[in-house]
Amino acid sequence: MKYIVIFVSVFLFSCNNKQQNQPKNFNEKIVDFAIENSNDKFIELPNLYDSLSKNIVNDNTEKLILVQTLKNKSFKVINWGRGNHPLGSRIVSITLKKDSCECEVDKIYYSSIDSIDNVSERIKCYKVLDKSKGLQQN
């Protein structure tokens, strides 16, 4: 009985209720995990980028790895923003949606006064219960 309840709860409360092919790479596995678990908690990937840039790129050339992975899964950008992050110089935040699933992806530039020390991305997904009101299920 316990296993049935766990299975049903995962099935009902995840953004993705369909079985899909095995992910091809690490980024797809992380995105699939965030979609399937849909627990509105961030998963941060601190070493996603192999090399660090010396400057923060302009909005029109900004690329987020996890956003590209979501776009490949037919998610569409519905909101984006950019601002200061308490632990770093800048944060870029993009919200994407597909059906009743919304995912937020942030790119965080952790820096000191002289340089960018680390660039990470984080992702969280949640299922929207009522499309007209934009309510989310935690």
- What is the residue-averaged pLDDT? 78
Number of strands: 6
Name the shape in a single word: globular
Unreliable stretches (pLDDT < 50, length at least 5) are 1-12
Total count of helical runs of at least 4 residues = 3
> What is the H-and-E element order?
HHEHEEEEE
Structure classification:
alpha+beta
- The Rg value, from CA coordinates, equals 16 Å
Distance from first to last alpha carbon: 24 Å
The amount of helix comes to 10-25%
Fraction of residues in β-strands:
35-45%
* Biggest sheet record: 6 strands, antiparallel
Write the layout of secondary structure elements.
Blueprint: H1 2-13, H2 26-37, E1 43-45, H3 65-72, E2 76-85, E3 88-98, E4 101-111, E5 116-128, E6 136-137
Antiparallel strand pairs: 1-5, 2-3, 3-4, 4-5, 5-6
Overall description:
The chain is α+β, with helices and mostly antiparallel strands and 138 residues long. Helices cover 23% and strands 36% of the residues. It is built from three helices and six strands. Strands 1, 2, 3, 4, 5 and 6 form a six-stranded antiparallel β-sheet that branches. The two termini are 24 Å apart. Mean pLDDT is 78; it is low at 1-12.
Would you summarize the structure shown here?
The protein has 138 residues and is an alpha+beta fold. The chain is 23% helix and 36% strand.
